[in-house]
Design brief:
With 220 residues, this protein is an alpha+beta fold. It is built from five helices and four strands, in the order αββββαααα. Strand 3 and strand 4 form a beta hairpin. Helix 4 runs antiparallel to helix 5.
Length: 220
Amino acid sequence: MSRIATTILIGLLLAVSTLPAQAQRGKNEPKAKKLYCWNKGAERICSDALPQEAVNSAREEFSAASGLRRGEVERTLTEEERAEAAVVAAQRQLDLAAEQTRQRTEQAMLSTYESEDDLRRVFTERTGILDNNVQTARYNVASLREALVSLLGTAGDRELAGKPVAEKQARSIQQRHSELVTQRRMQASFEAQRKALDVEIEETLQRYRLLKGVGTDPRA
């Protein structure tokens, strides 16, 4: 073996023999110390040890040797904040799903309906149901009002004649009045839904025209 080869081999052996010792020294070396800085009220506190009461506080971390900023830790959220954050995240997911649904709906709208008349027919069933609900509620309100007026008139006549209103009659008046209040609320709700449907139909048609790239329907 040549002198050069022998020298190279000896050098490699020496290098290999020093690897375990170097690795062991690396394991035994202490971790780089940190300096923690956080706010306690209006006071700024910095220390090389983080007390238990500051574990959940927002803080900055610096190298104790160089003073350079090494990182930042956000404050731990409270239960209420975590719950609120979960609600916000869930709402973002719902908004994203709604937007994706809207896009798919628009694509389906373009591919399914050849004209506005085709699109209007989609709303025919809902319009018919709501119109029927409104008419039924109006009829019930008128009938209950008429029955209540009749009962009140009979009770008034008895009082004018110096006779007490019968308990059964008083209960009937109270019942009819309660039913009338309920039917009025239902009527108002159905009428509001019907108006909202008109708005929805018009907005859908306008969106359809925009997607189709056509002008406003002259019937609108």
